[in-house]
Amino acid sequence: MFVRFVFFVFIVRLKPNKPLKTPSFVALFLSLTMNLIAQTFMMNPYDCPDAVSLNGKWNAIIDPFSRGEAMKFYQNRKPQKNTEFFEYSFDHGLRLDVPGDFNSQTPELKYYEGNIWYQRTFEAEKKDGRRQFLYFAGVSYETKVWLNGLEVGRHEGGFTPFQFDITGQVKDGANDLVVLVNNERRPDGIPAMNFDWWNYGGILRDVFFINRPEVHIRDYKVELKRGGGGIAGYVQLEGARSPQELVLTIGGLDTRQALTTDAKGFASFEIAASPELWTPGNPKLYPVTLSTGQDRITDEIGFRTIAVKGTEILLNGKPVFLKGVNFHEEIPQRLGRAHSEADAAMILSEVKALGCNFIRTSHYPQNEHIVRAAEKMGFLIWEEIPIWQGIDFTNPEIFKKAEKMLRDMIYRDKNRAAVIIWSIANETKPSDDRDKMLTGLVELCHQLDGTRLVGAAFDNPRYDKETSTFRLVDKLADAVDVVGVNKYLGWYQPFPVEPNRIKWEVADGKPLIFSEFGAEALLGKRGPDDVAHEWSEDYQAAVYRRNLEMFRNIPNLRGTTPWVLFDFRSPYRCHQTYQNGWNRKGLVSDQGQRKMAWRVMKEFYDTK
User: Fold this and answer.
1) Which helix (H) or strand (E) element contains residue 131?
2) pLDDT-based confidence at residue 177 (cuts at 50, 70, 90)
3) Cα–Cα dist 591/557, whole Å
4) What pLDDT score was predicted for residue 40?
5) Which tens digit of pLDDT belongs to each residue from 310-368?
6) Which site in 297, 399, 423, 456 is 20 to 30 Å from 122, CA atoms measured?
């Protein structure tokens, strides 16, 4: 499979925002489009008028010995005779919030890794000429779903959406939905056994029941035509068996175009238009509507270009410096995964206060509320899949899982103008197997999406004492468009010389983003600014000042994302006085209070 895939990419690989000559734009666009939608497709409930939320309180059973499948919990049986009983019941027991991780909802589940069974009922009406789906925006990590006692599907991966067609299994009236979730870490998982964040399990994001017409809009993409000259895209209908008529309208551009699909429901389009371009200072979004005789989808879409020219990152043809920050999917003052629009607003308000125009959603695709709110607020986004250290690159199954996660991430957010970088890995160690797998993912990114850059973050630049220079030798760095560097000078290793004497020769000829740097500090702890083991705000702020001084010597530096915005939970962190299960590198504490280092970065960004 890998050899066949690389051969295809060699023929059709796109360069971001470069004019295409041969093959023609339309032919190439159709080829790449069909390659994407043929393997990954699902409707987006946030744009769908027929989506009904299944959020709320669900019944739950803890199953630490994994007995539930053998005992057929999914049948949710009730005694019908005097001689009958069952050794389980969803009624009158544990109740869990959905969305929400189970670890934070009861103390007994704080460190739990294993099976949890969820159950609820929902009302439905079975009609001819309709299609029904269950949509899960994110469940960690493995999921099995049963409806009315029958299995409807399985999914692996905690950070991308999935859906199941349940048309043949829906009943009139009450329907019994049972979901088995398992968050055990595993060597062949992504991420694998060790990662520096909390292993939250459960139904972490929104759940929807979707009731659609038989022929409905399954997928669409609307973007600037590559090479300029208008707007282009495609529409894919589900259930079409003959050509269908559609209408595309773009509010604010006085655009209305009739489309006719082929017999399989696919239509591409090109429109002469000159939209106002999306920028952080003016995040212009246009209302886009696609409608058929029976169906209608609405979205808000921005138009922009992103490209690399030498060491510059060009947004709409103009150089941009990415003033960014990292954050996990957590908010201060409440334990657990962030999952709501209110959570997104809280996180992004603090990003805005710092003076940022860029975010790195570390280290996994974060929930859609964050991505959509960030776009409306004018933040550019680096989005990545959780290939984070410790991955077994010798296992061919890992490549299949990584490819699926990458496809799902790109598919979900392909219409989000704010997303400018797809990242395929963070802090991986070079090897022949790793290079083969990850360069393959880079090529897949370019194949699926020629409108964005591809990046990765590296922690392996090496220091040359004789020349006071950091250098990076890595085949993956040669393959990506943008190189990220994670280096904690002043924390995990001292500055080898004074910061103004350190030189960087990393990613020559390409833009470099300093994707992680910083130090830990406990809020309110004061102490000498030259003693690391004091864990003081003074020391953390001094580390930031010294890093900013060193950055002046990086000629191709085009962005910074300090690690990290908020203190976050991590079992990695075992210092009983200063960490106690928290990574304390936040510029803001777990209680939402800003540390001294926050002001250092704020002043730096205000001058850029």
Assistant:
1) strand 130-136
2) very high
3) 32
4) 54
5) 999 999 999 999 999 999 999 998 999 999 999 999 999 999 999 999 999 999 999 99
6) 297
Q: Supply the DSSP symbol for 507.
A: S
Is it true that the peptide bond before 363 is cis, omega within 30 degrees of 0? yes
Burial of 7 (0-12, 13-18, 19+ CB in 10 A): exposed
Q: Is the distance from CB of 605 to CB of 323 less than 8 angstroms?
A: yes
pLDDT of residue 19: 33
Distance between CA 539 and CA 545 in Å, rounded? 10
Residue 370, SS3?
A: helix
Report yes or no: 214 and 50 within 8 Å, Cβ to Cβ: no
| Mean of pLDDT values over 270-287 | 97
Q: Could you tell me which of 149, 145, 148, 182 has the C-alpha nearest to residue 164?
A: 145
Neighbours of 237 (CB within 10 A): 24
Closest CA relative to residue 601, chosen from 550, 558, 547: 547
Average pLDDT over residues 71-79: 97
Q: According to the model, what pLDDT value does residue 43 have?
A: 80
Identify the three-state secondary structure at position 543.
helix
3-class SS letters over 392-412: CCCCHHHHHHHHHHHHHHHHH
Instruction: Tell me the backbone φ, ψ of residue 169, rounded to 5 degrees.
Output: -115, -5
Write down all domains in the chain, each with its CATH number in brackets: 2-38+215-304 (2.60.40.10), 47-213 (2.60.120.260), 308-607 (3.20.20.80)
What is the average pLDDT across 55-79?
A: 98
Beta strands at 286-291 and 557-560: parallel, antiparallel or unpaired: unpaired
Rounded average pLDDT over 490-496: 97
What is the pTM (predicted TM-score) of this model?
Answer: 0.93
pLDDT score recorded for residue 127: 86
Closest residue by Cα to residue 429 from 457, 401, 406, 450: 457
SS (H, E, C) 308-361: EECCEEEECCEECCEEEEEECCECCCCCCECCCHHHHHHHHHHHHHHCCCEEEE
In whole angstroms, give the CA distance from residue 282 to residue 265.
36
Distances (CA, A) of 497 to 75, 470, 551: 66, 12, 14
Strand ordering across the sheet containing 296-301 = 255-260, 245-250, 286-291, 296-301
Residue 11: pLDDT over 60: no
| Nearest CA among 310, 323, 385 for reference residue 514 | 323
CA distance 246 to 237: 10
Per-residue burial over 397-411, b if 16 or more Cβ lie within 10 Å, else e, is ebbebbbbbbbbbbb
How far apart, in whole angstroms, are the C-alpha atoms of residue 30 and residue 306? Answer: 21
Using one digit for the tens of pLDDT, what is the confidence trace for 89-145? 999 999 999 999 999 999 999 999 999 999 999 999 988 899 999 999 999 999 999
pLDDT surpassing 50 at residue 35 = no
Contacts of 5 (CB under 8 A, 6+ apart): 440, 443, 444
Which tokens is 607 given? 């001058």
N- to C-terminal Cα distance for the chain?
Answer: 46
Identify the burial level of 219 via C-beta atoms within 10 angstroms of its C-beta, where 0-12 means exposed, 13-18 middle and 19 or more buried: buried
